[in-house]
Amino acid sequence: MSAAGRLHTPLLGRTGWGALALFVAVAGVAIPILNVLPAEDSALRVPDFLIALLGKFVCYAIVALAIDLIWGYTGILSLGHGVFFALGGYAIGMYLMRSIGIEGVYASDLPDFMVFLDWKELPWFWYGFDSFPFALAMAVLAPAALAFAFGFFAFRSRITGVYFSIITQAMTFAFMLLFFRNDTGFGGNNGLTDFKRILGFSLQDPITRVGLYSASIAALVGAFLACRAIVTSKLGRLLRAVRDAEAKVRFSGYDALQYKLFAWTFSAALCGLAGALYVPQVGIINPGEMHPANSIEMAIWVAVGGRGTLVGAVGGAWLVNATKSWFTVAAPETWLYVLGGTFVAVTLFAPDGLVGLLRRLRLPGRSGLDGARSGEARPRGPETRRPDSLNVGSLKAKSLTESET
Amino acid sequence: MRASSKILNATLGLLLVIAGWQPARASELESHLLGLASDSRSEILDSIEALGEFDDPRALAPLEALVDKRLYRDVSGRLYIALEDGRGVVDGVTGAAVDIDVSTLDEPTINNRVRRLANGLIAQLSLRVPDAEARLRAAEKLRSRPSDEAREPIRRALEAERDERVRSALLVALGQIDLNAPDRETRLEAIAVLSEHGDRSLRSLLADLVVENEDGSFAEPDAEVREAARAAIDRIDRASALIDLAANLFYGLSLASILLLAALGLAITFGLMGVINMAHGEMLMIGAYTTYVVFGLFESYLPGAVDWYLLAALPSAFLISGCVGMLLERSVIRFLYGRPLETLLATWGISLMLIQTVRMFFGAQNVEVANPSWLSGGYEALPGVVLPWSRLAILLFVTGLVAVVYAMLQRTRLGLWVRAVTQNREMAGSLGIGTARVDMLTFGLGSGISGLGGVALSQIGNVGPELGQSYIVDSFMVVVLGGVRKIEGTEVAALGLVVVNKFLEPFAGAVLGKIFVLGFLILFIQVRPQGIFALRGRAAEA
Question: B473 and A292: CB-CB below 8 Å?
């Protein structure tokens, strides 16, 4: 958080741009080319399953960015991002269902599950999902609208800390139950699946899959830059101020509600986008994605990587999921121990995640561990209530609120 | 001398006649019984009529078997009855168990005429057995499947019957039959009887009477009878609404008591200490598995006392869950005081590990813990409303437990310490209270109480590794709704939440009802973030 010390932080430093360019060159250009061009048996060829796996990880990374923005930077731990993710996925899933046309099992214009439930016509909330742009817009807007409404009421009543986490978990639980019902109209238990094509391209075609992967990379880079733009702006400063001393922000004349609500809604929309990219690649969306456990797991990606650093969040998502992919194949019965142990170890020994550990290695004089134990050294969540963490008064209150909301 | 020898002769003759007659009658009965399984339908009908004259209850079992198509004969004409629950085959005349495969036997073919005649005779015979319970069973059978042939036997039985329950069942059966009687007075009388003794199972029968046909006529031609039927329907509806209400209240109360058990421990760890323990549900699970293990130990080593395993399970569950809780507090949670979000994540991780551990030891499948015999069965409070003993016991247990916990917090030294530490840690510490030790004990107490909850849960459902997960969201809701630091709040919230949910169910369905409740809760917390029972004064600001 050394960046917070300076008033004008560039979007990225020179090394930052360099690293980003390298990432784009490798993940966005080299890997797709190496999947498509080399011969089937070439050693250089990136296999198809890896493209599918990496595509998933890239979507998870976007989720991690979204959670980092709201948790790492604004101090609000959401246990409901799985819902936003799934809503985005459902929106695109509905488009994919509609684009099956009459090739379903029942050869009906309606999705199979509706035929199965003996529904005669499309429910009103399915209207418009024939169109890809509409579905994509809904994938972002539906989670955003839900988050806005939920956040508005919650933040207005000044629900903070664990209480907010708990009611987001209740929301997640309620949504999961809702989507498990057949009558809700989203395929119930089985969800939406058996997709055939997207925008006319077959989903079985490796080229389509590479295209989806590349789109995810592009979305990740875009999301990263957008989040970076937010956290380096004055808005980002205010978000951190809200995290460290919300009362002080209010006393200084800022309407904390607006900033929190913006970050919360933006985060949900980003999550929806990730879900929309995820579903065509995995080929299914069902209410299991909304299980409260999934949302908690998402939080641990960010915690492992390091809260309050965007790179850390992305890295954490990749590390945890790569570990998960390996363990669930190699030693499935130990995976829960690894995951559970990670939860405990990270919170106890590495509150700043891997990024924090790396920083400590580079600056051996500043030990973060003691601080973590007493909970006093660093301004952390809203719960620490450390009084002097940010000198908010020096910021120009009026101009900020006007220019940024 | 002559006269006396005449008398003697007559007596002897009579005796001879009686003695000779008895076996003859018996074998005649037997032959008619065998006739029931005849391949000629007219012979079956004759046999039933003949058996009707005998009026012998021994004919009951073969007759019932005949109607239920459980009656068989072999090539030599012997009679066999397959037992109702498929437990085996008995000889149709002697009732002795026989080892024979019924698929090798012949069945008599029966038609409606046979069935009607047999049903009438079954009614006649079964209503005259001396055992009141058996008569009641017979009457209940007639009540659920009335047939016109049973009318006369029922009338006759009613004249002799003194048992109230049997009478009531018979009256209802007769009423149902009489609803179709040709003369209006009888129908009116039947409706009056049904409205007085009947329950909602008769509603559709009565409703059929007042249905208007397409041509504008009614199923029941007489207006007065229709009016009476409508009044009877209203009366039955009112009564069944009352029963529904009572049943819902009880089930709501019993569910609430379970939720209260789950939430009570949480009210201590979260409500009093402010520790978000996501592994709380696993304390329930540990308690339930402890019960399972104790049950297993009793079964193998103390089979005579297996009924009393619960008495051992309760303290064991309390101790084991409590120790796990204290271990948890000492090893992880104490480093995270003041950082509730981190506590949430760390304890979630612990819950994952606990679940996996239990899976490894006991398998991923649910295990079953049998109720002790004194908790199985139930009390039929109203017709159709059975209150299971296990749920009643849990209700009592929870009430007692709440009282004990409350008294413990208010009246004991430990309770005083707990309250002091939660209100003002530094002040309590400077007055010589070992705050760290109190933290540990409080956490152990909360976990132990959850373990007791697990024992209760094992009595009404399956025990599985994910047992606790299903309660965690609800429990947190209850504690948040009730307001932290308030045990009373937790009680009221658990009750309110579940009873509301239960009453929403008939209108919205179980899932939608739950969603409504969750939605309501989210809204409620918006309006009153402090819960139902808010703290007043300075403590509210802390």
Answer: yes
